Amino acid sequence: MTKITLLINCNDQSGIIAAVTNFIANNNGNIVYIDQHVDREQDIFFMRLESEFEQFNMTAFKANFKSVLADKFKMKWRIYDTEDVPNMAIFVSKYDHCLYDILGRYNSGELFVKIPFIISNHNDLKPIADSFNIPFYHIPVTKDTKKEAETKQLELLKKHNVNFIVLARYMQIVSNRLIDVYPNKIINIHHSFLPAFVGAKPYHSAYKRGVKIIGATSHYVTEDLDAGPIIEQDVERVSHTHSIEDLIAKGRDLEKIVLANAIKLHLKRKVMVFNNKTVIFS
Which terminus of the chain has a lower count of CB atoms within 10 Å, N or C? Predict the structure, then answer.
């Protein structure tokens, strides 16, 4: 039994759902999940469909789908075999909370993914990688060596056939060299004080202002810093009784959960991006 996930977007028009479901039925497939959304402002149709086949040829299916449906409706579409396990690279710096959380979930089998390596611009977190038996590459990044560092990163990513990247508190700006190779495939996590409280100590600034809500945001990386399509967010209320240390601890908890949820949504092919906005299917 082969199970596929099909993602479609195109201009909204009559007959798309019927055409797609009939195509699956005519190819002896059984639909086990289907969801769709229409963006009325942009008049764009989105669909996510899961289907099972007793006999399945991916190459033939793609060619047939393109000629029968995709060309007719001018679709942008992607198809995935749900048994294919993607390769996920992790980039980190010195903060360890997100890395520990990801590796703990990975080690328990919660994440359907392979982690071929971890890259860091510092050596501090190498013992964590070693404890989980995951290769660790220390690639320092300075203003003068950034281009060279990215070349090494790209070589590793290509060598290990990495499908997407997770920045688990990687405190470096990712340039277009990586973004162009991995469009909407680099997941970042940060606090949700932006753009109100920028800089190295946002929780200290927020504490001085007496904020009442803290949060975390996970998004895809784009050329615009911390302004990419949002995958997941969460918040927690705080009050004057909480210290700076309380805010930092709560913020780190939120970052771990939000990043993990974003990774899961990406792995399950539940995220579609259109014009810097995401459609997240249930």
Answer: C
